[in-house]
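Exercise 7. Predict the joint structure of the components listed below.
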Amino acid sequence: MTQSGTVEHRSAKTGSTAIDRPFWTRLASIVAGGALLAIGLRKRSLGGAIAAGVGALLCYRGLAARDRRGATLESEPLESEPDGDRRPDARFSGAAPAVERSITIDRSPEELFERWRDPDTVTRVLGPVVDVTADDPGVWTWRIVGPFDRQWTWKTEVVESEPGTFIGWESHDDAAIPSWGTVRFRSEPTDRGTVVTLDLNFDPAGGALGDAALNRVGIVPATLVTKALRRFKALVETGEIPTLERNPSARGYGDLV
Amino acid sequence: MRALCWHDVNDLRVNDVPEPEIVNPRDVVLRVTKTTACGSDLHFIDGYLPTMREGDVIGHEFMGEVAEVGSSVSSFERGDRVVVPSFIGCGNCGYCADDLWSLCDNTNPNPELQEPILGDVTAGIYGYTHAFGGYAGSHAEFVRVPHADENCFHVPDELDDEQALFASDAWATGYMGADFCDIEDGDTVAVWGCGGVGLMAQQSAKLMGAERVIAIDRFPERLRLARTEAGAETVDYTDVDSVVDELDARTGGRGPDACIDAVGMEAHGTGVAHAYDRLKQRLKLHTDRGEALRQAIVACRKGGTLSILGVYGLMDKFPLGIVMNKGLTVRTAQQHGQRYVPRLLEHAAEGEMDPSYLATHELSLEDAPRGYELFKHKKDGCVRPVFTP
Ligand SMILES: [Zn+2]
Ligand SMILES: [Zn+2]
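Solution:
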């Protein structure tokens, strides 16, 4: 599954060498999604989980778009959909693959709030596949490097926050992977630390089909959320994240082999 | 470097693999000096425990010499001789703070493989499936040890390697099993199983003041060790109609004050749903395994303690009604080695307990596949093969 294969496929389908951008986007979404899935599922690291999760999302975006049009990949581009009112509705429809998980961390809400606002922390927590950088305060660029050095980037912006209590963010309209989420911090009265609740929502296009697509490949965003929270806890409690990086085996180095 | 790798069911090979490196600042890399097989390895060797991957380096009971030191390690330097518990603690989470090291929250890199089955995440362990962390094991020339200040223990110069090695797992586990029994003077403790862990539990129970220890097994050479090394009375269960009746007769009709199950120690920590059917199959094939735990429940005196070191992960037919009606206290855990290792090394230094007789076969790492054969089939009186990389 190579990039040139994708191009050939596109040319054959459209009978044109012109760049059919929306079509390409969707096909690339499915193809690259599949590649990421294949790689992600073989891996056991967070990188693997993220790659698999993102792959599943890309797959499901491609599948969802095709299904809703009830037609082929040449159908109307996803990007041109009037989605102005789609997101807020779907946001509460419960149809999107949304996940909320909690973990208890032995630190104060204020400290955890500050740590979560640091893009370096989030980059470390999300592992080697996702990279987060801050453009302006509260505006982050997310970058995923897939196989064959493919990249996806999108921006999110903090839309609500209250120090020591919660942070809420949303992706910009043109995001490759539309998403929004909140992280909330609540002090446990019993001196057990702070309950951190992470709520992640991905593009709701496709609704139940999206869930089905994710389930079919055995990946649920819960894996990403659970793993991210566990890594966040390990990082703030111990200063490092448990890793299989450069782990020796007869397969070679690391967990990616 | 050379390392013993799992390739498939009953297919272990010594391969060339890359050397481990410092990855996190609290890591050390050890040059392994002694490493031993554990009964729990047999479960993935036999294919009953999933999430092994072809080429995984196995082994989790070991000692070594510090070869490389991470930037945040404060208590160890190159050349230090140390022993390392098999479960990895972080020293910073609530569980480590409570001395419950095998429950550490922060050392399993693969929580997503374990949490859906156990409902929670245990500490990571070396060379013991990806659900339990996926860390490279110790049957190798070098091994990376995370959170070294918490997981390495200086070995006093006067101790031989074999006196310290078993503190890594077999001794710590057996000692913990005896500790669970809150032994008082005059108590009788029955121990099912005379493998490494069972023998250590028997000897530890004696050390903690048990008046009598009764060991149950069927291999004559192991029963002999129980008598000569651990000072136990023995029951060969193939010689008696009913182990329960035999124990009843030997304890004035009361039953032992505490019963330790060290038979299923091979099972270490199954708890993975995929293993269920195969495990069930195995339990049917080897009914004595589930049977040992049931015997212990029936034999134990009212209000006594049942200390479970063997794991019957997803076992059904657990007679909970008997446990309840007899008011038994059940205590169990994977070993919290970090809680016990300093005490064990002290016992060894004081001459109060010496586990080195467990090392029945000394082999090179290249001979490790043969060592596992001897160990698995209990050939040639093998209790534990010890490998020198
Ligand atoms: Zn073990
Ligand atoms: Zn811990």
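Discussion. The radius of gyration of chain A is 19 Å.
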